[in-house]
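pasting for ref
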Amino acid sequence: MHKSHFESINFKFSAQKIFPFENLLRSSLFSRTLRYVSDTNTIFFVGKPGCGKGTQAKLLSEYTGWPVISAGHQFRNIAEQDTPVGRKVKGEIDAGMLAPHWFAMYLYQKSLFKIPEGTNAIFDGFNRKVAESELIVDSMLWLGRTFSVVHIMVPDEIVRARLDVRKETSGRADDERVTERLREYYTYTEPAIEVFRTAGALVDVDGTLAPEEIAKVIREKLKLT
């Protein structure tokens, strides 16, 4: 079996390693993957910090078998490197700041161009500034990929409550910077969301529900059920 192109971005898929082949053919995951493969789809998640983007990307991946490509994961990996770039990224993350749009888009395009033809994908966190949103829309249209942007909506008080709990276990310095992160959201991400709305790609979802309920609503709105 040939290695997946996604191995370089921490994605591996081997049917034989997950199931015996006979079980794979009978599995609902395999059936759903075959059902969707003719419609190349790209899903993006956007929303306030702590809205549940990562959780919902993971749940959608588990349901569809599509890989998740996470901006946060890639930036945190870079921040662990003892290099000028790594130290700069770490300082900005710890301060609750968003990365420069050109850096986020470098990682996005690098990941996008590795997606094999006919493969669906889920992107988490690459669309937090207007320039990023515009480039995403342009790149999807240029490649002819169907895409949707799931906007998980939660009020600020829920964001604060969730991050208050998460910071006890996450070990992430940016979870201590809720006010700064919300300020970045309103300054940069809220206008970026309107780019997707204008493009007709935005799917608004109530993020105050239980995670499994939110996941169900997302699948219904994306017509993946």
